[in-house]
Task: structure prediction
Amino acid sequence: MATFLVERYWPGVTMAAARAVSEAVVTGADGTTVPEADGAEGAAGVAANRVRVVETILAASDEVCFWYVEAASVAAVEAAFATAAIPIDRITRATALASGPRAATEPDNARTDPPSGAAR
Result:
């Protein structure tokens, strides 16, 4: 699974609204959960489209919200946010670097490959 940073300029954003996006991206705009698939082929399709919000970062004074997500592709992220009716301004491949005790377990060359397309 790759990781991405999703950005939205959002004047007037509140903590409650930013948190609600995480739930909406997982469940979809209509409130239904992502269906489980039958069989290996169906499970692979669900896995390819699944997006997990790892972290939500709100910078209210700058009127911007970021979501750090895990997904198979930029297309999966775009689809999840579109299905949840959440507009976004940019998606870029990203890596979170741990600090403190966890940082000692990361390799010195921890990085991700650049995205296949241009950053949005």
